[in-house]
Amino acid sequence: MPAPPPPQPTREGPHYRLQHTLTGHTKSISAVKFSPDGTLLASCGAENIVKIWSPFTGELVRNLTGHTDGLSDVAWSLDSVYLASASDDKSVRIWEVDTGVTQKTLKGHSKWVFCLNYNHNSSLLVSGGCDGDIRIWDTRKGKCLKTLHAHIDYVTAVHFNRDSSLIVSCSLDGQISLPIQLRLTTIFRQIWNTATGQCLKTIVEGHEAICQHVQFSPNSKYILSTAHDSAIRLWDYQTTRCLKTYVGHTNKKYCICACFSVTGGKWIVAGSEDHKVWIWDLQSREVVQTLEGHTDVVVAVATHPSQNMIASGSIDSDLNIRIWVDDQAERR
Amino acid sequence: MNEFLISPFSAITHPTTVQTSLYAYGSFAKFDPSGRYIGVGRFDGVASIWDLETRAAIRFLDGHVKTVTSLDWSRNSRYVLTSSKDWNVIVWDLAALWDPPQRYATIRCDAPVSSASFHPRNSQIVLALLSTGEVYLIDLRKTYRSRVELVEPDDGDEEGGRRSAMTVARFDPSGKHVFIGTHSGSILVFSTRTKAMVARHRIAGGAGSLKGFDFAKSGRRLVTNSSDRTLRQFIVPQYPHPDPDGSFLETELEPTHRFSDPINKTAWHTMSYSPDGEWLAGGAADPATHKIYIWDISNDGQFASTLDGGREPLAYLHWHPSKSSIASTTKQGNVLIWHSPNPERWGAFAGGFEEVDENVEYEEKEDEFDIEDEEETLKRKMKAEEEEVDIDTVIEETSRPQNLIVSNGDDEDLAWADEDPDEDAAGWTMKIIMDDEEM
User: Fold this and answer.
1) Residues of chain A with C-beta less than 8 angstroms from the C-beta of B429
2) Residue B421 — pLDDT band, cuts 50, 70, 90?
3) Confidence band of B102 (pLDDT split at 50, 70, 90)
4) Sheet with strand B249-253: strands edge to edge
5) Residue from B36, B52, B147 nearest B400 by CA
6) Residue B147 CA to chain centroid, in angstroms?
7) Which helix (H) or strand (E) holds A330?
8) Which of B322, B374, B389, B395 to mutate to test binding with chain A, by most A CBs within 10 Å of its CB?
9) Closest C-alpha among A285, A274, A280, A186 to residue A242
10) Domains delineated in chain A
11) Is pTM beyond 0.95 here?
């Protein structure tokens, strides 16, 4: 047994409180994302509009209109200038946020586009569709560079690692009884001329859990996944070992997103079907705070890149986005 | 990072097949230090920057009116230097938000420029070789602003003091010395800081006019290309501090290895070490084929393989800064990117499965089918999860190998080069400029 690690000074729990309630969506919200420079919040939902908000004042800044069907995900480019949106109209649009103009429309998915993310320098965009395909796009030209027939069912999350050498994806492949499916896929550099990207690893945990959201940790050493057995797991993908399990919330039906919070203490933040936002301590896995206020299932959460701020979005009967802040951390 | 997932023990090997080709219309192509981009010099005076992730040209450096003769990248790829037969050297700043990018500096020379390069530690120091056989060190820093010709001191015994023309000039990887090859086949070594010659080497047995140098990243080994169609590898000697009296080391260098094509006796256009210095690739100057010869340096320089790139003759080659990949340029202007493909592993598609080459007798572990208390299992699992994880400390990977020696202030040469540093900071990213053509 090695010597116990030195006590962490910031072990005190977070004190998030409601700052703003953003009203405007008319249908279920599917995603909220802070811009990398922290000045804007983008949200989307089952109506055909992307909404851009100021997270500090709670005001609606702009509507991005053009999609002809509902939206499932949005992603910001590194410089916070562009926003990509994934829609049920089978297209991905890249918007210039300042002007609200569609710069590119990426067509190619044969079914609804469910998730997307930029790579480290925003030269590539990866999107996952309900046809089980992952597509990789050249953002500058708006052309599809590669299609990976990665899964046989809804791809529910795709994410690049820090140096864009890997993509992690997960899917509702539950019907073929491979419960948690996280796929790591390399792109390009080794395998340009092969028909598909190479699948490097599939991570499966042995019980009846369908994984529905996945992302790399900020340093790309680990993977955080959420699954329908009401558990969030942190994986070491090199050794395929589950390092941490976060439980307490309810997640059996919806695609609920979890994220890392690194601005104050180190927390894991996630929505829940019990209408709350749950916050765990990254290391101890204890629940340190639950945020109550939403009146329906919280599916979307996002953490601010530099401040102690959380945005959460909910569905059906509660169409509000709530902004939560923890300003006590700064006062301490 | 993913190299580890593919095969944890793989070292760099040599590439075997062409992965892709870029229709770049170039005379040579050179990877940037990160290996993400490739710079192509063209006959029409334009240099283009290609993104290897999207396989598309992303910047066009349009400033020369004649053939681009060489291109060099700064340490963190922010600055690009191009030299041309139009007598100019241009330094470009890729951090600019538009295309063509901003010119950071234009250096006008007195003759067509054969090659130019950045000092490895400071892109404001530029080395230029002119087609007239002269070499200049150009310092753009405010405090040192100068242009100094590197001159071989006169020997009394040489008739009329006629010096041999300089045919190749390179910084060593530390930037402390400039290595110059001459038409008569000698290697001259100058101190970058004092601009004084510190050594003159004759190659044992003679080699003819020198055509090219390449250093292994450590700077301890040097390979030369010369007109006698042989590549020679030397161990670089340690040089004393420059002597104020102007005296210098005069020795004969004995090559550790000689590489040549014993059958066809082809000449070589270029050669390039692998990132770890364990392999050497030579580009054959064959007028009808595209052949790359690979030698295994770690195995006493044994010939390892020939890569055949088809009909278009080879003009240039460059090894990737960190991977088993080579970019070779054809006479027709296409750039071939070579790689060493990994076989698809189907076991990767199913979690918990492993592929084996041969049947393995399964041995049951002692406790494999023991019935364990569920509570006990859970407790053990909880215990295992106590371990601290670090989610946000970034350990910079080898994707941008920094083999620069850290200057600790003792070394005069390094401290001198680090003075008045350029703005080539690590971690900047090239902005994406949206292509407006089609919507």
Assistant:
1) 78, 120-121
2) confident
3) confident
4) B166-171, B177-182, B186-191, B197-203, B249-253
5) B36
6) 26
7) helix A328-331
8) B389
9) A285
10) 36-255 (2.130.10.10)
11) no
